[in-house]
Amino acid sequence: MSTKDYIEKDYYKSLGVTKDASQADIKKTYRKLARELHPDKNPGNAEAEARFKEVSEAYDVLSDPAKRKEYDEARSLFGGGTFGGFGPGSGYGAGRQRTNINFNMGDMFGSGSSGNLNDLFDGLFGNATPGTRTRTRTHEQRTRGQDATADVTLSFDEAVSGVTMPLRLSGPGTCRTCNGVGARPGTSPRRCPTCDGTGFVSHNQGAFGFSEPCVDCRGTGRIIDSPCPDCHGTGSSTQVRSINVRIPAGIRDGAKVRVAGKGTPGSGGGPAGDLYVTVHVEPHKLFGRSGDDLTLTVPITFAEATLGTKLRVPTLDGSVALKVAPGTPSGRTLRVRGRGIARRGHTGDLLVTVEVAVPANVDDAARAALEQFAAAQTDDPRPHITAALGRE
């Protein structure tokens, strides 16, 4: 995130939402605008493309609670683009005209600093000569890019066997024209002579001193005399890119796949963030899943359950014979080992649950046979119920 973005750009206005908008409202608004402004829907429309980039950049910040909080605090602290010391009429330069200054908040409180205000007040009660202006220590940092997210939907068979999915992503990327440098091709940024490339200068007035972003380079430590015409000196632009993601075999619904280095590009030469792909798996028309086991429900007749039978049941890669023992009750689960889901060197089982199917209608011959069977049946199927009734 550049200094200009934090202090000067109004991302709420870009999306058309209020500052207290919920994350759900921000997401809903962004999706609507993205559909309307997407380059695929507006080929050759430079205005729509520029607006699409603006909306995507705003959503990248406001959709992340941590980045949104940092953005709000930066704009609140520096009054939407102005910096004038530590309060009206106080500190060094009281009474001076306030100057618009851009700087990166990460340079103040980023991972490369101590994380406290001592880095800002580098000259506070220091040994500098009263009334002098000194340079702070070099503070340039390599900042890792933000992580990105995406969603894919797979069929049940694809999730079991694994698949390579092409993804089309839209988001910030390294400017292809200047390769992230920010300067027009053929030129290079130069070190700021005012701060000697540190981005900050210290002021000492008597025993009191403080640091502030360099006015000349806007706290970047670099001066770009000829900005890149495409990214306007930021080094990044909104891009649509395609990547292939390998989904491992046996992945479960809701699992996330991490793709290293495919997130948002870093700044200052820092590494890119990672891409996290959430996988959604469609249900199968026959099979269910329990861990690495496949589940299957098979109806059988009363005669098959009573006398026993051999069934042929489907598997993901064919079929298998299954023996049903005589007297098998409805709802019993039979295990077929090694015919489940293979994942990480382990293969689950196929769990077959048999259920006795009761016919809704029977013909006269079947009814007569059933009545004859009932008359010949001597075993009480519910002895505990009969015993309880006999005690009444």
Report what the structure shows.
With 392 residues, the chain is an alpha+beta fold. It folds into three domains: 1-80, DnaJ domain (Helix Hairpins); 81-281, HSP40/DNAj peptide-binding domain (Sandwich); 288-390, Sandwich (HSP40/DNAj peptide-binding domain), CATH 2.60.260. It has ten helices and 20 strands. The strands form eight sheets. The chain has a four-stranded mixed sheet. Strands 3-7-8 form a three-stranded antiparallel sheet, with no helix packed on it. A hairpin with a 2-residue loop joins strand 13 (288-290) and strand 14. Helix 3 (23-37) runs antiparallel to helix 4. The longest helix has 17 residues, at 46-62. It is elongated.
Q: For the record, what CATH class of the largest domain applies?
A: Mainly Beta
Instruction: Please tally the β strands and state the result.
Output: 20
The rough form would be described as elongated
Number of domains: 3
The helix/strand order is: HHHHHEEHEEHEEEEEEEEEEHEEEEEEHH
Radius of gyration: 35 Å
Instruction: Give the CATH architecture of the largest domain.
Output: Sandwich
Task: Indicate the CATH topology of the largest domain.
Answer: HSP40/DNAj peptide-binding domain
Sheet-strand content, in percent, reads 25-35%
Low-confidence stretches: 79-140
Main sheet summary: 4 strands, mixed
Averaged pLDDT: 79
Helix count? 10
Residues in helices, as a percent range: 10-25%
Class derived from helix and strand content: alpha+beta
